[in-house]
Design a protein that fits this description.
SAICAR_synthetase_CS; purine biosynthesis; SAICAR_synth; 4-stranded antiparallel beta sheet; EC 6.3.2.6; 286 residues; 29% helix; alpha+beta; D-amino Acid Aminotransferase, Chain A, domain 1; binds ligand Q0T; Phosphorylase Kinase, domain 1; phosphoribosylaminoimidazolesuccinocarboxamide synthase activity; 18 strands; 5-stranded antiparallel beta sheet
């Protein structure tokens, strides 16, 4: 929802976040909206925007020794207190830097069709949820509103931004993923895959931007429920998915109609999952 925020000019809205110009900087606002099956659902999940903003901030702190980030301040307008960040305006690379440690989703589909993901060959016999021998860089181009990102090869990234920057983004993405996956795994959460966005400062420094390592930019799986060979339960969205695909919701996913409003009980259980992910990862109580 585009808010009237003093000093801020709306730039761009995603499914669950909004970006504003804010003086020389940008204001990145996380809403309470939740998205599933490519729909923005109603109602929002209370505190989701704040929980994921705090989670992103915590990850930026954990990663500051290996990559600079775009966060300037949390001193944001009171209408968006706690769920927005003032960030440095960067020259963004037009590449969604996806890293996968496990095979699922569009990666699994590409693998099933070709034995490769984004041109990267994988061993035979992998199934949904298989852990990959090594994390792989599987870039994508930003899709138009409402469309899926398009998986591309590393060579396509080279053609787009040059070999040096393409290698730098790949290496940095994998390094950051490895660090985050280890931290999450120690806390019982499998970071199956994640999407980074990077920008460049005028001095050429590559900076980690956007949100990082939240359940909106990543697949979070509860480690104790991991079982390759079937789809894994989502740490945060499984209650929503199960209800939407149950007879109780009356929703038929195939006719592409908007899903019904979520019942209060599903909203509350989902809020508790976001809180649990935040507290387990950061060790901080809400
Ligand atoms: C509405 C949600 O979509 C986005 O925020 C994607 N996006 C990010 C930028 C960006 N542009 C310059 N500098 C930055 N630091 C950033 C960041 N983050 C533009 N679009």
């Amino acid at each position: 929802m585009v808010l009237e925020i003093p000093g801020a000019t709306h730039l761009h809205s995603g499914k669950v976040r909004d970006l504003y110009e804010y003086g020389d900087h940008l204001l990145m606002v996380a809403s309470d909206r939740i998205s599933a099956y490519d729909f923005s659902l109603e109602p929002g999940i209370p505190d989701k925007g704040e929980i994921l903003t705090r989670m992103s901030l915590w990850w930026f702190e954990q990663l500051a020794d290996i990559v600079p980030n775009h966060v300037i301040s949390t001193d944001v307008p009171e209408q968006v207190a706690g769920r927005a960040l003032i960030v440095e305006r960067l020259d963004m690379f037009p590449v969604e830097c996806v890293v996968r440690g496990y095979l699922t989703g569009s990666g699994l589909a590409d693998y099933a069709a070709s034995g490769h993901v984004c041109g990267v060959p994988l061993p035979r016999g992998l199934v949904d949820g298989s852990r990959l021998p090594e994390p792989i860089f599987t870039p994508a181009t930003k899709a138009e509103i409402g469309d899926h990102d398009q998986n591309i090869t590393f060579d396509h990234v080279v053609d787009t931004i040059g070999a040096e920057d393409a290698a730098a983004l790949r290496d940095l993405s994998i390094q950051v993923y490895r660090r985050a996956e280890e931290i999450a795994r120690e806390r019982g959460i499998l970071l199956a895959d994640t999407k980074f966005e990077f920008g460049r400062r005028p001095d050429g420094t590559i900076v980690l931007a956007d949100e990082v390592l939240t359940p909106d930019s990543s697949r979070f799986w509860p480690a104790d429920a991991w079982e390759p060979g079937r789809s894994q339960p989502s740490f945060d969205k499984q209650f929503v998915r199960d209800w939407l695909t149950s007879p109780e919701s009356g929703w038929d996913r195939d006719i592409e109609s908007a899903p019904p409003r979520l019942p209060d009980a599903i909203v509350e259980k989902t809020r508790e999952r976001y809180l649990e992910a935040y507290e387990r990862l950061t060790g901080r109580s809400w």
